[in-house]
Amino acid sequence: MQLLSDRILNMATSATLAMAAKARELRGEGKDIIGLSLGEPDFNTPDFIKEAAIQAINDNYNSYSPVDGYGELKDAIITKFKRDNNLTYTPAQIVVSTGAKQSLANIAGVMINEGDEVILPCPYWVSYADIVKLNDGVPVEVKTSIDTDFKMTASQLEAAITPNTKMLWFSSPCNPSGSVYSKDELRALADVLVKHPNIYVVSDEIYEHINYGEGHVSMAEFDDMYDRTITVNGVSKAFAMTGWRIGYIGAPEKIARACNKMQGQITSGANCIAQRAVITALNESPSRVQYMIDEFKVRRDLILSLLNDIEGFNTNTPEGAFYVFPNISHFFGKTFRGTTINNASDFSMYLLEEALVATVDGGAFGNPDCIRISYAASQEQIIEAIKRIKEVVS
Ligand SMILES: Cc1ncc(COP(=O)(O)O)c(C=O)c1O
């Protein structure tokens, strides 16, 4: 009998984590690798949040919390949803989890049956397809391109819907393209969905605050979508709290209760100290973390201007998150020291080995013509990395 389950054998390793591991290995060999592969702010968690965690330790928060989160944290989340998104939720509609990643895994676990189709506009966040597959669902990729700023159009959505469609999952601002759906664009998608009342939406809004454009719109803001949208959010990105592991959902009550049940058998409540700190984070005005977003914008403009100077890098203008997603198919078929670059994976590996810059293969996000470059790095690192990339592709 085989040792490992088909389930795990069929699962892809997270490409972003795999690239980070490879970069670490090369660093261990003494190579000066610039890491632009991970999706994590390079800022420290703000002091006012750290102090709240220290206070929680001193106040002896050391017991299991309620599975779906402390009541005070749910209240802070409800306040945040109202203040930032004009969304009204009750405590029974909120579930706090160990990162938005667990929120997504919970949703898949409680909603997907074998053969259910989940529409994923491409490029999508690296874990969506594998979380869906792990739960016997079928990811249905909808290809988008730079011409539509990597956004799915209403007619593409319509064409992807079948009698087996259960859900649509998307992120806005998008990881990896940085694209942000406008209100009109979301409304156009909603207009298609209202004709198919059994389809639910996962609106992943974890980059909500890292938005350089007209501002954030939540799918659940539309009255006719509220009852079938699960709004996913978390503190990893905007508050520089990736390692604290707190995410949450606002969802129809039936779905929230099911997520609570699922989590109760798997992890119980999220880390109690982190939960206490997040109460403070969410009760503050988002303006407390605006300094990070301002800096990300400066870096976005910097990296775009540097990349636009390299022949063969075709980029959109990301309106949010902290990634650029250039199409680099110009380089396919080119050979270096006997090795031919056939796809984005080869290209990303070439950049790692020759330029000592870690990026991620766009294939992991459903688009093998692109690579993802994170600009959650200092301006000096960005300048040096793009200089190295320019040298090795010229
Ligand atoms: C679009 C998207 N959703 C969810 C997550 C997971 O975030 P968390 O750290 O809260 O698990 C990430 C993290 O990279 C992300 O980019």
From TrEMBL:
Its cofactor is pyridoxal 5'-phosphate. Keywords: Aminotransferase, Pyridoxal phosphate, Transferase. Gene3D superfamilies: Aspartate Aminotransferase, domain 1, Type I PLP-dependent aspartate aminotransferase-like (Major domain). One of its GO terms (biological process) is amino acid metabolic process. InterPro entries: Aminotransferase_I/II_large (IPR004839), AspAT/PAT-like (IPR050596), NHTrfase_class1_PyrdxlP-BS (IPR004838), PyrdxlP-dep_Trfase (IPR015424), PyrdxlP-dep_Trfase_major (IPR015421), PyrdxlP-dep_Trfase_small (IPR015422). It comes from the Bacteria. The keyword Nuclease does not apply. GO terms for molecular function: pyridoxal phosphate binding; transaminase activity. Its EC number is 2.6.1.-. Residues 31-389 form the Aminotransferase class I/classII large domain. The keyword Transferase applies. It holds the Pfam family Aminotran_1_2. Belongs to the class-I pyridoxal-phosphate-dependent aminotransferase family. PANTHER family: ASPARTATE AMINOTRANSFERASE. This is Aminotransferase.
